[in-house]
Amino acid sequence: MTNLRFLSAFLSCSTLVSCILASSANLQRRDGFIPSGPKFVVYSASAVDEGVLPPLYEIQGFNVLNLAFLQCDGPYGQAKRWADLPIDQRQQLKAQYNAAGVSLVVAAFGANDLPTTNGLDPTTIAGTMAQFVLDNNLDGVDVDYEELELMRSQAGVGETWVSTFTQALRARLPQGQFIISHAPVAPWFEPYLCPGGCYLTVHQNVGDLIDWYNIQFYNQSPDPGYENCDTLLYNAGGSSVFEILGHGVDQSKIVIGKPASTQDMTNGGYMDPAALGTCVAQAVGQGWNAGVMTYQFPHADTAWLSAVKGSSFNQ
Fold first, then answer.
1. What is the number of structural domains in the chain?
2. Nearest 10 degrees: CA dihedral of 157, 159, 161, 163?
3. In terms of residue numbers, what domain contains 173?
4. CB 127: neighbour CB atoms within 10 A?
5. Is residue 245 part of a domain?
6. pLDDT digits (tens, 9 = 90+) for 179-202
7. Residues 261/263/268/269 CA torsion (nearest 10 deg)
8. d(CA 209, CA 211)
9. Bond from prior residue into 222 cis (ω within 30 degrees of 0)
10. I need a surface site. Which of 1, 101, 258, 297 has the fewest CB within 10 A?
11. What average pLDDT score do residues 232-254 get?
12. Half-sphere exposure of 162 (CA within 13 A, CB side)
């Protein structure tokens, strides 16, 4: 009896230890990969020719790949194609891309998803989207909230929704383990544009929980346009790069977002990659070095990024 009791206790202890180790390993697998230094972000919304992810050799130099879009009623486009892959294939691809220095992130919402207008609870939606990240071997979420009319017409409603959503999302995806970026349109950093403060209020509320902003310096034509270095960097009514910096947003969070081609925008903001590279070089020369975002692959590829980066980030 004594020996059996000892053996039973030993096996129970061994099983408990195994469970703890397995749980720890599972948590470790779920930790995201976060690149250090400047962020070079490319969106993938359209199906690629082969497989699901853009081939690594075609996006060399980018270190974040945003799969679009996860909406409130589920994944679409590249987000759905990724989720539909067998688990082992997702794990293999994630390991491969992370080893190459590329984070895999899901882009949430988009222009066609209006969660606040539709009366959805931000905490509930955050929980669902965080679980999608955990269940699908992803490194985080890019919050592409685009309730443009609501932000301009209802003071504080959109700002409160986004802030609560971000807090709930971060509670499930801890900082330093998972990426949470946001992709606001640039004018939302302009003081007095929105009665509730737009993203200046969001930044004040939860900016410390957001890793960086993939700021959309496009689709705002004809004014300010962001189609030259002056409006992109210095003079855009409060929403250029250095004006946003002057509003108290840390330069390391101000990632310049641009369409890869005229086909990837709806209303202005396109710049030839070489011309954009001139502006980027100016900004780097003045202390900014957060990085560049572009929408989308395949028009944005290694050649596009090389023209935009030049030698600016090698200094």
1. 1
2. -150
3. 36-314
4. 15
5. yes
6. 999 999 999 999 999 999 999 999
7. -20
8. 7
9. yes
10. 1
11. 97
12. 36
